[in-house]
Design a protein that fits this description.
The complex is a heterodimer.
Chain A lengths: L1 H24 L6 H21 L1 H6 L5 H38 L8 H31 L3 H27 L3 H30 L21 H10 L7 H22 L10
Helix pairs in contact in A: 1-5, 1-6, 1-7, 1-8, 2-5, 4-5, 4-7, 4-9, 5-6, 7-8, 7-9
Chain B lengths: L1 H15 L10 E6 L2 E3 L2 E4 L5 E7 L5 E5 L4 E5 L3 E7 L5 E7 L7 E6 L1
Parallel strand pairs in B: 1-4, 3-9
Antiparallel strand pairs in B: 1-2, 4-7, 5-6, 5-8, 8-9
Classes of the chains: A mainly alpha, B mainly beta.
Chain lengths: 274, 110
């Protein structure tokens, strides 16, 4: 039972961390609860569908279907996170100002919610499909199923509690800094996802270069430890990264930075000299 | 100009396309009763290697390894190919995430 609890918990917290960050990033935006709920529900539904077709997905594209699927899901999430950060770079200040004036609720800011709902949905879909497959396996085994299943359910509950904890922790950040902190978190999250996506493309054989491991810090922190796993999800920590992963990581951070600078640029705000 | 662009695009495609002459060596791991056979698999170092993982259990398993940078779900009663490497000589452990207490193994690159 404990084993099942731990496995499910570890899958759930990866999605949970992302949900917690998204909740903090959209603090005070009207309608965010609904959007995030839609994202979670769509993700759970999608997870069921993906689990159901796991066999078909695996066999697709000459056996590389699963890798390509994961790479695409992660790639879409990266684009959505970039879009959100660019949008926040442009409108964040107004939102923060408005928040101070009229309290916590703000009417503006409906736009990036769709992007973030997609990110939440994809995160739940990816981790959820593994949970569904694992729980299905328990069902299929029959005998000791019930105790394992209760372990699985407890794992989901514990994961949800962890999400709430992440959110509460981020809320402790003063209002003034919250947007810059969440922007940073989202940038690192996106970079980590991009590196993962690149590795899936490499495993699928789409990319065939830069697959050599560059360094090894597994003696210091392994992704198999809970903290290592959290760092993996949160900032994309990889103990034995390949050149490709490093390039994808830094490239995404750089692209994000440039995009945010462009979004922030407002010609009319500058003194005009004729 | 257009010819040049076409040539450049072709060159880029050829450069990025997966090497067609990928290792034909066949490596197979079988999952049975949530255990891997063989539990130690020797593969050549410094080249791409494809391993076919056959899951003969009825339940799904997730073949996972941080050091090999692989995570792949293999539904019950099916098989999947995982591509690894190029590896430096050494030992690389892998496990089945859904049954980690029994499903363990090592890839030895030499």
């Amino acid at each position: 039972m404990l084993g099942a609890l731990i496995i499910v918990f570890r899958e759930v917290i990866e999605a949970g961390l992302i949900i917690g960050i998204v909740m903090a990033a959209t603090r005070g935006v009207i309608g965010r609860g609904r959007w995030i709920a839609i994202g979670v529900c769509a993700g759970i539904l999608g997870a069921g569908v993906v689990a159901l077709f796991a066999g078909a997905i695996s066999q697709a594209f000459e056996g590389a279907g699963q890798e390509l699927f994961n790479a695409t899901v992660l790639g879409v999430a990266v684009v959505m996170l970039m879009w959100h950060n660019a949008w926040m770079a442009r409108h964040g200040r107004e939102i923060a100002a408005e928040m101070r004036q009229i309290g916590s609720e703000v009417s503006e800011g409906a736009k990036p919610l769709t992007a973030l709902a997609v990110v939440v949905g994809l995160a739940v879909l990816r981790e959820g499909s593994e949970v569904v497959l694992f729980l299905y396996g328990i069902f299929a085994q029959g005998t000791s199923g019930l105790s394992l299943l209760s372990g699985g359910v407890l794992g989901i509950v514990a994961g949800a509690a962890f999400t709430a904890l992440t959110y509460a922790g981020l809320l402790a950040i003063p209002q003034r800094y919250i947007f810059s902190v969440t922007s940073w978190l989202i940038a690192l999250l996106a970079a980590g996802m991009a590196a993962q996506s690149a590795q899936f493309l490499y495993n699928a054989g789409v990319i065939d270069r830069m697959g050599e491991t560059v360094w090894d810090t597994s003696w210091l922190l392994s992704e198999k430890s809970l903290f290592g796993q959290l760092m993996h999800t949160l900032i994309g920590y990889v103990s034995q990264p390949t050149a490709l992963q490093i390039v994808a990581y830094i490239g995404t951070l750089a692209a994000m930075y440039v995009l945010m600078r462009i979004a922030r640029y407002r010609p009319e705000a500058r003194p005009v000299r004729v | 100009m257009r010819t040049f662009l076409t040539a450049a695009a072709l060159a880029a495609f050829v450069a990025l396309a997966p090497a067609a002459a990928q290792a034909a060596d066949d490596f197979t791991l079988t999952i049975k009763d949530h255990k891997f056979t063989p539990s130690e698999l020797k593969v050549p170092a410094n080249k791409r290697v494809a391993i076919t993982v056959v899951n003969s259990d009825d339940t799904p398993e997730e073949f996972e390894s941080n050091s090999l940078k692989v995570e792949k779900v293999i539904p019950g009663g099916s098989k999947a190919t995982v591509r690894i490497g190029p590896l430096k000589p050494g030992r690389y452990d892998f496990f089945g995430e859904f049954h980690e207490d029994t499903a363990k193994g090592v890839v030895i690159a030499e």
